[in-house]
Amino acid sequence: MNSTLHIEIVQRQHSCLDRNELLRNVKKVTVDGLITSGMTMRSFNNSLLNEHVESIMFSEFNNEEGKVIDFKTVNVRYYVYRLNVEGQQTEVMDGGDGEDDELSAASHWILPSVDFHGLWENLIYDSTIKENLLSFVETTILFSDCKVNTNIISWNRVVLLHGPPGTGKTSLCKALAQKLAIRLGHRFTHGELIEINSHSLFSKWFSESGKLVLKMFTKIQEYIEDPQALVCVLIDEVESLTHARQSALAGTEPSDSLRVVNAVLTQIDQIRRYPNVLILTTSNITAAIDLAFVDRADIKQYIGLPSVHAIYKIYQSCILELKRTGIVTSIDNIVPFKYLQLPRTEHDNTMAFQLSMQLFSIARQSEGLSGRTLRKIPFLAHAYYIQVPQVSLEDFINAMHKAVIKQLSDRKDFS
């Protein structure tokens, strides 16, 4: 079976170029050029594309990153879209306490959004979780289109990502919503991402929290009823809304918590019949989540701390970004991780290979750090040990080593 090559084309905001004409020019570039998996093009030997296209990204799942693509052996899918530049909007609603108070109930984005551009590609995991999530949504749409009887085969369009803090669970949910808005552009005119502010839904007034949950989902319902919109509802730290009911029944939690859990479960059951909605949830404390909610989740995926392989790729992506912006100056590139695993050859004496081995050593030293912390290391390395506009790759990697040592020392002191 041929693999699928996804070509995502970001059209400039001012461009009015016909889609077919744009694709015709894109195909010229891809046929004539050397294209590798994971590659992003931002400049072209084509004046029309330079005028109308911001970037073209090539991705081929289940394939080796950096591998040259043979267009004769892949199925090609093109996606043309513009990024929404409005950014985050705040959804407010009546606090329900009889006063004029309004509370920030949710954050709202129209997708694809400039806020999440490139996020999916820069989330690095050891498992195939990203591919699995996309396949999950494709299957939900297929089953809905074929009118599969949900009384016989059940699915709820609910994803639960759980694991320690800082491992990218929330970012993955946002990136998934963005990617779906792009990949399903032939079916939906746009996407809507609604991130519920769980903590704001707990009223200081007795018995109001359950009502606030109902109000929130009533607002979400307005978006879902537009069949042209793909609606992704994100509930971060879902345990705050779906705290185990056993605690409330045992008297260790207020009865209001019981109302909130019941309200959330009821609303999920009601909106699951819509084919254009996906509920994305995250949790750091899965033991606190009500089992009835866990049972409704179609995917329950653990997101752990990154392995040495993932850490190396994270650091590599950070260095590539700093080289792109001109902060790190070097003709040498960090070599892909796979080459470090091969038997040694005479090429191992090159500066690029030696620097890559040094970065690999730093990655091993960084085991146990979260993805959030790892992506701060390059910034801290520059802030503490560089402090000049431009730096060589060798000096920057040495600074990263010092930054990791300091981070580990600070963590030890804190604990």
Overview of this protein structure:
With 415 residues, the chain is an alpha/beta fold. The chain folds into 3 domains: 3-81, Vcp-like ATPase, Chain A, domain 2 (Roll), CATH 3.10.330; 89-302, Rossmann fold, CATH 3.40.50; 308-414, no CATH class. Helices cover 40% and strands 19% of the residues. The chain has helices at 19-32, 47-52, 129-145, 169-183, 208-224, 245-249, 255-271, 291-296, 308-324, 337-340, 351-365, 371-374, 377-385, 393-414, and strands at 3-11, 40-41, 53-60, 74-81, 89-94, 102-111, 158-162, 190-196, 229-235, 277-283, 299-302, 328-329, 391-392. The strands form 3 sheets. Strands 5-6-8-9-10-7-11 form a 7-stranded mixed beta sheet, with helices on both faces. A 4-stranded mixed beta sheet has the order 2-3-1-4. A two-stranded parallel sheet has the order 12-13. Strand 8 (190-196), helix 5 and strand 9 (229-235) form a beta-alpha-beta unit. Helix 5 (208-224) runs parallel beside helix 7 (255-271), helix 9 crosses helix 11 and helix 11 (351-365) packs parallel to helix 14. The longest helix is centred in the last third of the chain and has 22 residues, at 393-414. The relative contact order is 0.10. The model has no long low-confidence stretch (mean pLDDT 88). One of its GO terms (molecular function) is ATP hydrolysis activity. This is Pachytene checkpoint protein 2 homolog. It comes from Zootermopsis nevadensis. Residues 155-307 form the AAA+ ATPase domain. Belongs to the AAA ATPase family. PCH2 subfamily.
